[in-house]
Amino acid sequence: MTKPKLRIGLIGSGFMGKAHAFGYANAARVFDLPYELELHTLADVTEESAAKAAAALGFARATSDWRALVADPAIEVVNITAPNALHKPMALAAIAAGKHVYCEKPLASQARDAREMADAAEARGVKTQVGFNYLCNPMLALARAMIEAGELGEIRGYRGLHAEDYMADAGGPFTFRHDPIGGGALADIGSHALATAEYVMGPAAGRITRVMGDCVTMIGERRDGEGLRRVEVDDLGRAFLRFESGATGSVEGNWIATGRKMQHDFEVYGTKGALAFTQERFNELHFFSTDDRKGRQGFRRIEAAPEHAPYGLFCVAAGHQLGFNDLKAIEVAGYLDAVAGRRPEPFNFRAGLRIQTLVETIQESSRAGAWRDVPTL
Amino acid sequence: MTKPKLRIGLIGSGFMGKAHAFGYANAARVFDLPYELELHTLADVTEESAAKAAAALGFARATSDWRALVADPAIEVVNITAPNALHKPMALAAIAAGKHVYCEKPLASQARDAREMADAAEARGVKTQVGFNYLCNPMLALARAMIEAGELGEIRGYRGLHAEDYMADAGGPFTFRHDPIGGGALADIGSHALATAEYVMGPAAGRITRVMGDCVTMIGERRDGEGLRRVEVDDLGRAFLRFESGATGSVEGNWIATGRKMQHDFEVYGTKGALAFTQERFNELHFFSTDDRKGRQGFRRIEAAPEHAPYGLFCVAAGHQLGFNDLKAIEVAGYLDAVAGRRPEPFNFRAGLRIQTLVETIQESSRAGAWRDVPTL
Amino acid sequence: MTKPKLRIGLIGSGFMGKAHAFGYANAARVFDLPYELELHTLADVTEESAAKAAAALGFARATSDWRALVADPAIEVVNITAPNALHKPMALAAIAAGKHVYCEKPLASQARDAREMADAAEARGVKTQVGFNYLCNPMLALARAMIEAGELGEIRGYRGLHAEDYMADAGGPFTFRHDPIGGGALADIGSHALATAEYVMGPAAGRITRVMGDCVTMIGERRDGEGLRRVEVDDLGRAFLRFESGATGSVEGNWIATGRKMQHDFEVYGTKGALAFTQERFNELHFFSTDDRKGRQGFRRIEAAPEHAPYGLFCVAAGHQLGFNDLKAIEVAGYLDAVAGRRPEPFNFRAGLRIQTLVETIQESSRAGAWRDVPTL
Amino acid sequence: MTKPKLRIGLIGSGFMGKAHAFGYANAARVFDLPYELELHTLADVTEESAAKAAAALGFARATSDWRALVADPAIEVVNITAPNALHKPMALAAIAAGKHVYCEKPLASQARDAREMADAAEARGVKTQVGFNYLCNPMLALARAMIEAGELGEIRGYRGLHAEDYMADAGGPFTFRHDPIGGGALADIGSHALATAEYVMGPAAGRITRVMGDCVTMIGERRDGEGLRRVEVDDLGRAFLRFESGATGSVEGNWIATGRKMQHDFEVYGTKGALAFTQERFNELHFFSTDDRKGRQGFRRIEAAPEHAPYGLFCVAAGHQLGFNDLKAIEVAGYLDAVAGRRPEPFNFRAGLRIQTLVETIQESSRAGAWRDVPTL
């Protein structure tokens, strides 16, 4: 029984470009994918860089013209890992050409652009994916499943966080991440905290309906060439949250948290139990249950194991552990299943729009110093 | 060289009454106190309960009349561990009689009462103390000292928390802690988180100047006798914080955090380092320093040791660990030093007023859905 | 209902002398002791030091003549915290005078002396206690109770450890702890690891019946005045263990474990579960149970709580935590109950002899390079 | 600049076969390998299973005849992931055909066979590798480098462990792992603990020169078809260790440690510092240094980061973490560098023989109840 072919085009060959290439390769080895994959063409800025990357990453062809890639009738899926500002034109062009599109986060710098992209994809009927790969961790799926199954009882509260320190050095230069439109810690990594919050809480508490934001710029100017440039985006963004069910929570995105490398954490509290997670040890989930007998209760360190699909496809036994790149392979496999119609899209452009909308609502709330309803999409 | 005597009167003999008695006894053995202590009189509700408690706790006399205790010219320090509603009349009476007063938290249910008490004490020139004993942990003193000494560089951010689960059971009864005036999780334990925030951040970041509150009632009614009674106080209270220096932070008090017994945590981030602490393991402080060489950096688990005074008075070597009751002994010793004029009062009525003011400002901000300046005292 | 008086004499006023005094004082406040205690006389090397210590520690009388204290007919319990070499003559004199004796560890430098002391006490019918206070931790009692109740199934294996670093500095001087008779890491702190092993494993696995030792001297000479003195005792001692039931294990005592302050750890493995403990966080016990459902199993961090008697006498709620000095109060209370005939002696001279016998059998096994049966007492 | 081709043959397609295939694929993407790899032929038991696995794992050809694969002149490297009993004939045949051989652990069931294989490979001049992939963790390389650089001072002691629970169920069947020749916990996973001990300690302490073993069978018989079969191999094996430098240590391999999934731990103690590691959190290394100032010392949690090569080839920033399969890719890359002559073989057949020799010496010591010198190879 041979599988249908699926031809992939990749735009960009930086870190995320590589991560996509690994993701496809690993997914093909680990999962029973619905397709035989063909890494067809890689587009990069110059012919030379494209050729080199294509060879290294296993693509058969190379081009410096992403529009040619997008227009190539042989290609069925377009992966976009180019700079953020190009996501929109590339995605719209690919959608117009009828391609499925797998775009790195952020989908767009502004919600209105993300909406345009989501609308276009749905109108054209192509399958889309935005790269929020922390969601692909089997321990997050476990958390969500436990919440959905009622193992924590009724869900009351949430505390989420994504803190790192890559912008903690005030001597570091002004970069595209400091761009007044679309930049800042909340957008860059607070978006992960928001995505996790809705992913984990969703089945029991529904979506975030209202927010109160607190976005703070601590490093007011940064080196830009010879001079200094004013920074307007936040170095950390906090929010109070309301969920549909009445549950409440808080979230923080922070890129000046000295010493923190991957503090993507959450805690969920229900009437009968609680969960605690940190990406610093992302092969573990800590679970408290009031069902345990008195005197024997405590947070229990569940280690990732074959019981927590799809971990078992990567490692035959508990304790071996997944790495960051494995999460990307899981993301790829989920998306390809969606392309084949086996399941809904795991995190499509509308989901990307959703995150961008949350970010912007929090930013707007912070500016206003008042609570804001999150617009429905 | 004999020490002057200091005669102690204690009102109340419940958990905190016992804790005070232990505190005096332990402090006398551990510290070189400025006084020879005499546990003079214990007052409780009935003659019988007072007599029994006096015997058990080592007081020479017993009475069911707290006013008699307060008026007794022999007594120089009055300890108040009676129900919250009595704190004010007892303290004012004791102050009027010229006694030093050591009152359990909360100082009063409302800031205006706390202010009256602080004003009275200052006018009369007596020394006061409010029991915020988590502050007496040598590891918190270490954190404060490190911040003051600049070991973290310039301080940018703070995240604080006090979460427990003693009100998580919706079937539990309505109690005095649910009283619309002065009750709620923010007042009851969020107050600890606020006290720690200002204690630790103070030397570098100054006081909290503005807050945005989010106080939430999750369990809207509770059993009261045969019927149900509406609960108006918060089950959890959150706040965004601004400090004088421009540093920002957040804090949460939560008494429905299923599974949490003592999650009194904080993290402080500076330009050169960070600290992380949890009361769940309160003989440790975790310290990150950018001064460590690249590739060897990491959060370092400092264990309480004789270098961290006054730990060494309790245990001769690192790793032996203090317990909760030892913190109370440290509190007592600090207060007695203040009574003797050796040092400023560690946490006097004005400090208690300060905490009450922060709590009420956060509550008011939450009701208004808007930021509020914290009134100066 | 008045309690009978019990008059206490204390020999020594160093760290352990203080700890005994605290222990009595705290025990009296925390527990419903069978006696009204009277701290009668304290003996120390000089009249002056004795007087000063008596005042500080609450003893009514002072003496420089321990023989007078031991002979005083008013005194009913003699506490010995003098240097190790004096334990035997002091204890024998006290026993001869019909006193109950509470002696710090090690009971004696050699098993034959310990045996003489145990025999004497039993012949005279006095109650004895050796200070192995880590055993008084409610979490160890919990571990023992869980094992006894079969919560781990059949017990198969044990791994124990007591490692610190107080002798890690090769530049440190030769002390009495390096004395060829009775000295060394195995005797000094490995003894704690052995005591814990038999305490925890006892109900299910019985006693240690055979050992294979490995005692190592790493720092072969130390400063002694102007010169260097050869060190013959071990800096670390390891042993393989056999228990009566057929369970096996290992244990290590180590005083040159750089960085370790209180690594008194153990792990127990049974057919249905496991326990892990470290004194570094001694208010916790970690429990794995195969009864938990698949996919939800994991080591569970049980925090000390009122369910774990006698924790609740010290703290009203979980998470507050006991300190080192509280363990001593528990030890005192257990001993006084034994003196009153309410319960068997928790850790009497024969138990002290048992530990000394284990230590010496391991040392002898190490010298011989062969397994040795542990002599029955 | 084109790279020379290297053609790979793989025998076996179970878990380790897959791991090898992934390892090659990932290594090719992550590292700048000296070769262009060609996955040439896969051999499995039947034509059908071989064809299926070849397709899934990316091999161009398939065969049921491993002798044909070994004889194929096109193939330059033979990977052996067949059952242990076949390692020797396959490896010898491949060596005879002049192939480089990469064999899963254990190299052979008995040291004498391993020696024959190592001798044959060296005589023929082919490059060999045994799969001890835990050694490929950058955090272990860091530990070794720190020890070599003297960051811990003079090394004194070691404690190592590899404990899991996959044989804890006494109801589980008799398997090839229980084979009297070559089976048992010490051989199966204690071998990892031994490999890590010599890898980490080597630069400072040299090799293990003497051992005292303690091998224990706890589950004496297991189901075998309808009946029960006697188990002669150990369920756990312990050893005391002596290193060339005079440092000492201990090690344990244990497959009945209920609840443990990957307790591959070690601690190293030197005169100036210490390291602690657990494979349960293998992207961390904990480091204590006496160079830190007093009052600020503590074990520091170093998170894997680009400073710790080759981590940075997998993840651009600290905290992202490697997974188990990434360790295999590092193993492959190291081996291919050795094949190309760029570096010595990371863990060749002689190293595999070394581990087997250690295992057998410990077993023999255990049987004799006496210390044994480790034979030099």
Describe this entry's structure for a reader.
- 4 copies of one chain form a homotetramer.
- The first copy, chain A, has 10 helices and 17 strands.
- Chain A has 377 residues and is an alpha/beta fold.
- The first copy, chain A, folds into 2 domains: 129 residues, Rossmann fold, CATH 3.40.50; 206 residues, Dihydrodipicolinate Reductase, domain 2 (2-Layer Sandwich).
- In chain A, β1, α1 and β2 form a beta-alpha-beta unit.
- Chain A is globular, with a radius of gyration of 21 Å.
- The two termini of chain A are 42 Å apart.
- The model of chain A has no long low-confidence stretch (mean pLDDT 96).
- Chains in contact: A-B, A-C, A-D, B-C, B-D, C-D.
- The interface between A and B is large, with 39 and 39 residues.
- β16 of chain B pairs antiparallel with β16 of chain D, so a sheet runs across the interface.
> Going across the major beta sheet of chain A, what is the strand order?
16-15-14-13-7-12-11-8-17
Average pLDDT metric of chain A: 96
Shape of chain A: globular
Q: Classify the fold: give the CATH topology of the largest domain in chain A.
A: Dihydrodipicolinate Reductase, domain 2
Radius of gyration of chain A: 21 Å
Low-pLDDT stretches of chain A:
none
CATH class of the largest domain in chain A: Alpha Beta
Order of helices and strands of chain A: EHEHEHEHEHEHEHEEEEEEEEEHHHE
Judged by helices, strands and strand pairing, the structural class of chain A is: alpha/beta
**Largest chain-chain contact?**
A-B, 39 and 39 residues
Quick one: biggest sheet of chain A?
9 strands, mixed
* Percent of sequence in beta strands of chain A: 25-35%
Q: Tally the helices of chain A.
A: 10
What CATH architecture of the largest domain in chain A do you see? 2-Layer Sandwich
Oligomer: homotetramer
Specify the helix fraction band of chain A: 25-40%
CATH superfamily membership of the largest domain in chain A: Dihydrodipicolinate Reductase, domain 2
Number of strands of chain A: 17
Distance between the termini of chain A: 42 Å
